[in-house]
Design brief:
There is one protein chain. By secondary structure, the chain is α+β, with helices and mostly antiparallel strands. It contains four helices and eleven strands, in the order αββββββββββαβαα. The N terminus is likely disordered. The chain has two domains: about 150 residues; about 60 residues, Type 1 dockerin domain, CATH 1.10.1330.10. Strands 1, 2, 3, 4, 5, 6, 7, 8, 9, 10 and 11 form an eleven-stranded mixed β-sheet that branches. α1 runs antiparallel to α4.
């Protein structure tokens, strides 16, 4: 069912206007830290590292980061996020590329200094080394673009993806109709309640999965994570 939950994320993303993506020519320093936790992004802008020698191409990006990245203390992780990215470059005329990347994977990880070595992120047998930083309740994950349209020219572009720590009570259920599974019936119920805030007519706390007083994309990604399960 993980493929279905990723499809829900992708479909909903189509209805949200793009956020800005800031082009930078110097990577923020990777400081490492304890990456364990539940991390999420809710239609968040991000940074794109572009080498200074490519500044003449006037590269610009637009897009957003949305989804979840769970890092467990048993050295396993689950990634369920989408980075929408449109790049515009001035090379023999203005050209636009869709570099959207969807991570829907789980595997093992290890930490070596300021780097996280993850298996299975790009494919079942892939091994990726990602620089990262944890500061308070923010995780910065530095993910290279692997699209062959970029790598074929030896260009190194890195997405700097910000996630914030999420704490959700394990007792909260996304099985809203109580039929023993989280399915499309629950999704349509959630969609009806989406956008409501505490104190408004129609607000129902059972759809506020992170109990922050608003039924929003934070709750949606919790729902997508549990889609296909029992609650």
């Amino acid at each position: 069912m993980r493929t279905v939950s990723a499809l829900i994320v992708l479909l909903l993303a189509l209805f949200v206007p793009p956020a800005s993506a800031q082009v930078i020519t110097a990577l923020p320093p990777a400081t490492g830290g304890d990456p364990a936790g539940e991390w999420q992004a809710d239609s968040t802008g991000y940074q794109v590292y572009v080498p200074p020698d490519l500044s003449s191409l006037n590269l610009t990006f637009s897009g957003r980061l949305r989804g979840r990245f769970a890092v467990k203390r048993d050295s396993t992780y689950t990634a369920n996020y989408i980075v929408s990215a449109k790049a515009s470059v001035n090379f023999l005329g203005q050209r636009t590329f869709d570099l959207t990347d969807t991570a829907n994977a789980s595997g093992r990880y290890s930490v070596r200094g300021t780097r996280m070595i993850v298996t299975g992120l790009d494919s079942a047998n892939s091994v990726d080394t990602l620089s990262y930083s944890v500061k308070a309740d923010t995780l910065l994950l530095m993910v290279p673009i692997t699209d062959p349209r970029v790598t074929a020219f030896g260009i190194r572009i890195i997405l700097v993806l910000p996630f914030r720590r999420d704490t959700v009570s394990p007792g909260v259920s996304a099985d809203f109709n109580g039929n023993g599974r989280v399915d499309f019936d629950d999704f349509f119920m959630f969609a009806e309640a989406f956008g409501k805030q505490r104190g408004e007519v129609g607000f129902n706390a059972k759809f506020d999965l992170n109990a922050d007083g608003a039924i929003n994309f934070d709750d949606f990604f919790i729902f997508a994570e549990r889609f296909g399960g029992s609650g």
